[in-house]
Design a protein that fits this description.
Shape of chain A: extended
Largest sheet of chain A: none
Oligomer: heterodimer
Order of helices and strands of chain A: HHHHHHHH
Number of strands of chain B: 0
Largest sheet of chain B: none
Low-confidence stretches of chain B: none
Number of strands of chain A: 0
Largest interface: A-B, 93 and 72 residues
């Protein structure tokens, strides 16, 4: 498919816009000098990703992404940032000085993966084939074929919940414990 | 839309995640980079699912599993960061060199 034929489809303009948002905010997440900005830029990247999911006929997963990631995980990150903010409020020294090797490595990984996908799927078309995947199908799949992984994942979530409470809880000294019981 | 445009976008996001993972020194920012990489993987799953329609929507189901496990990972990770910060007064990985040779 030539580029002019590709760009003539209106959905690809949407893709270019959303993809640009995702790429720019993704890049700024790893380069921003301010910790809070990095977390908020991740919101933009994830919102763009949800847009991509909508384009790929995955409505349910797109809204799950918005609810779970943007609604819950980013809030958790912001709490973590606020709690662990260095007392001096310094924003320098967030990055290591040795940036050349990581940059080369990531460019290498990108080129390898891009080459592999161009090599294998250069003519595969997306979309326009059949209906969107319904939430009903996902629900039947989750409680049918994948019911055991589903239960395992729910157990993992419960274990993580209890584990993080146990980890983050402040251990009281015996004296404090006694005082706490009295109150 | 061709499949490649999504795969290459996901590859770029994954590469940004690797860069952030290696360059950042604040633990919270490292966790943010991991989230970026997981998102790239999710894009791949959804893109492949929308091409090779499986009867059980396997790609989307796995994306939901990944999102769930990522949420659990963030919870545990931030609890560990909180404990390190409480003990060391720092969230910088360069300060955690007690067990380094």
């Amino acid at each position: 498919m030539t580029f002019s034929a590709w760009i003539s489809e209106p959905i690809n303009w949407v893709f270019l816009l959303v993809g640009l948002i995702v790429l720019v905010s993704g890049f700024r997440v790893v380069t921003a000098k301010n910790v809070v900005h990095a977390a908020l830029l991740l919101v933009a990247a994830l919102a763009g990703t949800a847009g991509l999911f909508l384009m790929l006929a995955a409505e349910f997963v797109a809204w799950v992404l918005v609810l779970v990631y943007i609604g819950a995980v980013i809030v958790l990150f912001l709490f973590g940032i606020m709690i662990t903010r260095a007392p001096t409020g310094q924003d320098e020294g967030l990055d290591s000085e040795k940036k050349i090797v990581p940059a080369l490595l990531s460019v290498g990984v990108f080129l390898l993966m891009a080459w592999a996908s161009i090599d294998a799927f250069s003519t595969t078309l997306v979309g326009g084939t059949g209906d969107p995947i319904s939430t009903e199908l996902i629900g039947e799949s989750l409680l049918g074929r994948f019911v055991i992984p589903f239960e395992v994942v729910s157990f993992v979530l419960l274990a993580a919940l209890i584990g993080s409470i146990t980890l983050a809880r402040k251990d009281l000294t015996p004296i404090e414990e006694e005082e706490g019981q009295r109150v | 839309m061709i499949l490649n445009q999504f795969l290459i976008l996901a590859a770029a996001l994954f590469a940004f995640g690797i860069y952030g993972l290696l360059v950042r020194r604040n633990i919270v920012l490292i966790l943010l980079s991991v989230e970026l990489m997981l998102t790239a993987v999710n894009i791949n799953f959804i893109a492949f699912e929308s091409v090779f329609r499986s009867s059980d929507a396997i790609g989307q189901v796995f994306t939901i599993f990944i999102i769930t496990v990522a949420a659990a990972e963030v919870g545990i990770g931030l609890a560990i960061v909180l404990m390190i910060f409480r003990n060391r007064k720092s969230a910088n990985v360069d300060d955690l060199r007690l067990m380094r040779y």
